[in-house]
Amino acid sequence: MRRRLLVVLVPLAVLLVAALGVPHSVTLAEREMQETYVDRLGDVGRFASLAETALSTGRTEALQQELTRYHDLYGIPAAVIDTSGTVLLGPAAAYQEAARAEPALPRIVTAALAGTRSEPSGEWVPWDASALVVAEPVGRDSEVVGAVVTISDLSKTRSRVLLQWAQLAALGLLPLIALVAVAWPVSAWVLRPVRELDAASSRISQGDLTIRADAEAGPVELRRLAGSFNTMMDAVENAVQRQRAFVSDASHQLRNPLTSLRLAVETLEPHLAGGGRQVYEVAVDEVKAMQRLLNSLQASARMESIRTTSPVDLDAVLATRVDRWRALTATAGQTLAVQVPPGLRVLEPTGGLGSILDELVSNALRLSEARVVEVSARVAAGSGVTADSRVGADGVVVIAVRDDGQGLDEAERAQALRRFWRSPRHQNVPGTGLGLAICADLVGAAGGELRLEEGLPRPDGSGHGFAAVVALPVAPQEPGD
């Protein structure tokens, strides 16, 4: 965030420096050009007046010597040319060599021979390598007999202008450096509480309701915001704790009376006769269902009170479960297929990944009337990792429990993750309707997702079974792996 602030401040400072320095720099370059042009214009004007007299009298030796000394002293070729462009006086070789490098020379000389004084170019800039060509007609009006031309190398002028521009740029950078020097610690002071508040919000989104923001650092406005944030989190944490405590306490307090009720009902069995036995069996089944419900509520309250994740090897989890799953499926006359590549490492939800997989496999065995139950795992496509290596924290491992049983239609799957929901086909099957809902909450708290999909094709071709798919983040790679 500090970087974003600097991204705004630095361009503003650069614009300020440019606004202050560029006009002055441009004026400086124009002034240097004007001074150079005026000097050359004075020189060619003087030479033109001398050339007019010398050409009319035929006494050209003195002018020739002066033009030669001018070139030797200043390094500027100055020549008198006739109307055909032939050099009459001056250093002819130096003039012709310089003239070959100046494409604008013919235009300027033509204008001078027509009796027009040349004008300086308004497009001159220090990085332009062209010379300054100044021409003055010799004679007047229709009596122009030639022109005096100077070709001035401006490299020294360019060097002076560029040096002055560099000095101005250096001076212009001083306010920019000062601004950055002030903005850096100020932005750190302002944005540090914002970063801490962002980190606290991230921790809270992962289920840690104990985190609080620092309400003693930063500007007054941010301290007030952090204080309000902490007050809000206190209220949220207290409400969640009261809710969990109520569920746990209510389940615990109801357990003893319910146990006593069950014992009392069961003691009636020897005294029952006729149709009373059927009522007795219904009552016992209802009491057992209520006990299972209370056990599930207590387990849910206990597990939701802890919102931490830890890395775990999927191989290790399956090693403690697969044998028991195979025994259960064999007893029920079903087949278990496990297709999990080695080396997968995930962030384990609260309560353990094994417990979640137990619940999903149990549902497939009890509720689906399936012949085949399949447990598979893979790394999600596009994560940039492979299934046979330890992977970084940028991937997702997808674990699926599929069967070829009755399954659920799309409308039922949309409701199956709600608490206490049960399919009408399963009303006489023992259960509370909490298993999938609790698993979905735990997987979501670990940064993953539990979704329900179509399962394996049924053997009779009448449709598909049921599939519970768990997507969990890949665990960070441990040092030394």
What do these coordinates show?
The protein is an alpha+beta fold. The protein is rod-shaped, with a radius of gyration of 47 Å. The protein has helices spanning 2-57, 61-74, 92-100, 105-113, 155-205, 220-266, 276-304, 314-319, 322-331, 353-367, 410-415, 435-445; strands at residues 78-82, 87-89, 132-138, 146-152, 310-313, 335-339, 345-348, 372-379, 396-403, 449-457, 464-473. The strands form three sheets. It has a five-stranded mixed β-sheet with strand order 6-8-9-11-10. The chain has a four-stranded antiparallel β-sheet with strand order 2-1-4-3, with helices on both faces. Strands 5-7 form a two-stranded antiparallel ribbon. The protein starts with a helix and ends in an 8-residue tail after the last strand. The protein is built from twelve helices and eleven strands. Helix 7 runs parallel beside helix 12 (435-445).
